Amino acid sequence: MIDLEKLDENRELFGFFAGQLVYPDKEMFASIRESGEEVLPSTVMEPVTKYREQMLALSMEEIEELYVDTFDFEKSSTLYMTFFKYEDSKDRGQLLTSLKAVYEMFGMEMIDRELPDFLPLMLEFLSAANWLGHPHSETGMFTVLTILEDGTYQLMKSLEQKGNPYYELVKALRETFKLCLLQEVKVHESV
Question: Using an 8 Å Cβ cutoff, are 31 and 16 in contact?
Answer without folding.
Answer: yes
